[in-house]
Design a protein that fits this description.
There is one protein chain. The protein is α+β, with helices and mostly antiparallel strands. It has 3 domains: 17-143, PH-domain like, CATH 2.30.29; 152-242, EF-hand (Recoverin, domain 1); 262-337, no CATH class. It has 13 helices and 12 strands. Strands 4-3-2-1-7-6-5 form a 7-stranded antiparallel β-sheet. It has a 3-stranded antiparallel β-sheet with strand order 10-11-12. It has a two-stranded antiparallel ribbon with strand order 8-9. A hairpin with a 7-residue loop joins strand 6 (106-111) and strand 7 (119-124). Helix 7 (162-170) crosses helix 11. The two termini are 43 Å apart. Its EC number is 3.1.4.11. InterPro entries: EF-hand-dom_pair, PI-PLC_fam, PLC-beta_PH, PLC-like_Pdiesterase_TIM-brl, PLC_EF-hand-like, PLipase_C_PInositol-sp_X_dom. This is Phosphoinositide phospholipase C. One of its GO terms (molecular function) is phosphatidylinositol-4,5-bisphosphate phospholipase C activity.
């Protein structure tokens, strides 16, 4: 059990109200897309999903509407790093709103379940300022530590299964052969101290749970008001407690970013070998995008293999003496910007 004062040190997910309301955009799905589609871009109030809905005037079927799990967003980009249509006709059609450049009004989202299988989605906003808001705040939601290390309750809520699981448990208590339908606060104190507490903990630094700790849990998680007034915890309330943030295996405050104040030798540094490769070391492709993805994943030591280029005397990055396709050193360095 975590100390209650520690649980809420990490900032909860905060979704900009304008994201919930929705923003008029044009969306452009990849460099091979042959269309820019008008629609509305939204985020649900819990910050679980990003979704965009095509306007009726686009003539597209409802199946063209898309949804993206925000937890797999790896990066957001705008300005020179945004991916915009190359076709002049598409650019003219999508360039609505303010007179800012199309790149400045575009937010490109990099997403994927791993570093290599990354795809890009571009959304063209009405102004540079609107694009900047989505660029900054969407990434904050995606990298919120409290959401990335959420409780069982949060993930059930995300899957819209929380009420279903609670119903299944509370309607099948007889199979568990429970003599009572609730725990008293004394029984809850015994559970906290004898079952849940790690006996190796120091008693002074981590004191045993007491009556007040049990009552706090009952008041927080018991859904029945009559049970609360009698200081009883039903099995639904007990389950809500077990799947809550208070019962995470790692304290949330330990996940927070902190300043590195000790000598470098006190830390593990995530490093990367042949960072530029998208596959094997003999015949795969090199990509400057791999440097971005490695850095976003927490890597702080990357490898650049510089070689003399055969054309225009420009240096390249490549796995030497193999069939790996090269990239310009300039593009690899630009990826760090």
């Amino acid at each position: 059990m975590q100390e209650r004062a520690d649980i809420f040190k990490l900032e909860p997910v905060s979704v900009n109200p304008s994201f919930v309301k929705g923003e008029e955009i044009f969306y452009f799905l990849g460099k091979y897309s042959s269309a820019v589609i008008p629609g509305t871009l939204k985020v649900d109030k819990d910050g679980f999903f990003l979704y965009w809905v095509a306007d009726k005037i686009s003539g597209l079927a409802p199946c063209s509407d898309k949804i993206l799990d925000i937890s797999i967003i790896r990066d957001t980009r705008t300005g020179l790093n945004a991916k915009t249509p190359k076709d002049r006709g598409l650019r003219d059609r999508a360039n609505f709103g303010s007179s800012h450049s199309l790149e400045d009004k575009t937010v490109t989202i990099s997403c994927g379940t791993d570093l290599v299988k990354v795809r890009f989605l571009s959304f063209i906003c009405s102004s540079k300022d609107v694009a900047k808001i989505w660029y900054n705040e969407l990434l904050k939601v995606a990298y919120n530590l409290r959401a990335l290390h959420g409780s069982v309750e949060m993930f059930l809520q995300k899957k819209n299964m929380l009420d279903y699981v609670l119903f299944i448990v509370t309607t099948n208590l007889d199979t568990c052969q429970f003599s009572e339908q609730y725990l008293t606060f004394n029984e809850l104190v015994d559970f906290l101290n004898k079952v849940q507490r790690d006996p190796r903990l120091d008693e002074i630094l981590y004191p045993y749970a007491n009556k007040q700790n049990a009552l706090n849990i009952i008041y927080q998680y018991e859904p029945s008001i009559p049970h609360k007034t009698r200081a009883l915890l039903s099995y639904e309330g007990f389950l809500r407690y077990l799947i809550s943030e208070e019962c995470l295996p790692v304290k949330l405050d330990k996940l927070d970013l902190c300043d590195i104040a000790k000598p470098l030798a006190h830390y593990f540094i995530s490093s990367s070998h042949n960072t530029y490769l998208t596959g094997d070391q003999f015949s795969s492709k090199s990509s400057s995008e791999m440097y971005r993805q490695a850095l976003l994943s927490g890597c702080r030591c990357v490898e650049l293999d510089f070689w003399d280029g055969k054309h225009m005397n420009k240096p390249i990055v490549v796995h030497g003496h193999t069939r790996v396709k090269e990239i310009l050193a300039k593009h690899a360095i630009d990826a760090f910007a």
